[in-house]
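Revision sheet: C-alpha cells.
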Amino acid sequence: MSGLDNTSITVRTVTTTTTTVTSQDSVLIPTNAGAKNFAMPGAALVIPGRQYTFSNGTVTTLTLTPSAGLIDGAATKVVAAGTAAAPVCVTVVSDGTNWVTIAS
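Predicted:
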C-alpha cells in the first residue's frame, strides 16, 4: 500500500475518570463529559523530548499530574473545557526533569 509509513502516532480515547498515561500513548482524547485526571510519568522517567497531546473537546476540565517533577512549574496542570467544535488542545514535552507546555 502506498502512502503508509512508520511515523504514525497512537491516539487513545478515554472514558474513565482517572487514566494512567503510558509510553504507548501520543494523543489522548476524552470522549464523555465529566472531569478527567491523567496520571503522567515523571519527566525524568522518559526520554527528553517525549511528547503527549491532550485534546479536550468535552464540557469539562482535564487535570494532568506527573508522578514526579513539575509541569510548567506546578504540581498539576488544568486544561480548560472545550467543545466538540472548538476543542482545547495542549502538548507537553519532557525536558529530562520536568514537563513543559509547547503548544496550547
